[in-house]
Amino acid sequence: MGLPIHFVVDPQGWFCVGVIFFIWLYNTLFIPQLILFPRFEEGHIPAAAIWAYYGASLFCVVSLLRASTADPGKLLECPKIPLREKDYWELCNKCNLMRPKRSHHCSRCGHCVRRMDHHCPWINNCVGEDNHWLFLQLCFYTQLLSGYTLILDFCHYYYFIPLKTINWDVFMFRHELAMLRISTFMGIVMFGGMCSLFYTQIEGILTDLTTIEKMTNCCDQVPQVRKPWQQTFSEVFGSRWKILWFIPFRRRRPLGVAYYFANHV
Ligand SMILES: [Zn+2]
Ligand SMILES: [Zn+2]
After folding, report:
1. I want to staple 190 with a disulfide (CB 3.0 to 4.6 A). Which of 87, 93, 120, 146 is the partner?
2. Is there a catalytic annotation at residue 120?
C-alpha cells in the first residue's frame, strides 16, 4: 500500500505490544486446532464458523500492526499553515514548533501529535488524528475475537457433546484443558478491558473530546456546539461511508475539520 512506517523506540512499549501479539498468536494457533477443526470434522459447526474466526483474527492483527506503525499525526518541522487557519495554531513550548490547536506534546515520543488522544503503550504509539480510527478498529476487533473465543471455550465444555475422534497423543490434545483455561483467562481479561476502553473511546468521539481533553477538563468552560454523531465519527475515520469505518485495509482521507472544535470555527 506504500504506507510510511512510524516506529517508536521504547523497549517497554515493545514488551506491551509483544504481550498483545502473543495473546493473538496463541488464540489464532490453538483455538482452531483444539476446537474449530475437530468440531467441524464431527459436524457440530459449519465451515463458516472457522472462516469467521480467521476473518476476525486477520482484521484484529492488521489493525494492531497498522495502529502501532502508522504515523499518528506528527507535526512537520516547517508546516505550511493555511492563512485562514492561522488563528488556530500555537507554539509548542517543548519542541518549539507551530502546531494546530488540540495538538499535544507526547513526552514518550518526544514530538507533538495532531488531535492527540493519548499515548498507548499497548500499541507502542501515540493515538492521534491519523491513527485513531485504526485504534478504534483494534478495540472493536479485539472485543469480537476475544468474545468469540470465550463463547467457543464455553460451548466446547458445556454445550457441545464430547468429541469422539481426537488424537490424544498430540501434545495440544494431551494438554487441552490447561491450554483452554489459559485461553479463557486471556479472553476474559481482553474482553473486559476492551469493552471499557471501547466504551470510553466511543463516548469521547460522540462528545468530540479526546482522552487528554477529558482528563484536563480543558473544555468545561467552552460552550460546545454538539456536532451530529455521523460528523464526529466521519472526521475520526476519514470517510462518510460507514462500511469503511470497519475496514483497516485502506488509506484514511482527512475531512479537514478535526483541528478545532466546531465552536472555535
Ligand atoms: Zn511539541
Ligand atoms: Zn507518544
Report:
1. 146
2. yes
